[in-house]
Amino acid sequence: MIYTIGGIKGGSSKTTIATNLVVFLLQQRRKVLLVDADDQASASSFTDVRSQLHEATGYELVQLTGRTLHQQVFALAGKYDDIVIDTGGRDTVSQRAALTVSDVFLVPFAARSLDIWTIDAVVKLVDEVKAVNANLRSFSFVARTDVHGNQGSAWREAAAVLKEYPSVEFLEQVVGNRVAFGNAVARGEGVLELKPADTKASAEITALFTHVQQLTK
Q: pTM of the entire structure?
């Protein structure tokens, strides 16, 4: 399976989602390639930290950008069970190239108006890519928020808007704005690897990715 994590606007935890997806897949004993297709190279920085603090990363990393990214990913696909592509938060040539060979497009949104308003641009991007890759499944979900307390109303408002766009399927699973995610990144880990464990963060990540796997079997 080839997953691309992207979108139009930064700041919605795309690299956090990508690296936690890699760890989730590793715990299923999958052979995983992480592709850093973002000019900011956050996934590469995460991998550097992981390689320094752990005996092995457990996955392979490559940096690929530009128009030929899809050709390079396609050439590598047969060597791995899964490929996770982190494309960052802009409509780039790299992101479009990645989507032409992807099975799944995951788009996290922060529950803020400026983020949610980009859904029209995301839908336009998906529609254009589907002219080349008709099998692409696209999913939106809310990240960096909480369904409880003061942020609950923001999540509900964001969810209501995202549900209006069926070409990018909305997932009810939310990824909270939890300290555990930052702590895990600082250790080069996914939240599923943290000790002591953060049960809420782990449950959110597991629920999100398990649901995506069930929808895309």
A: 0.95
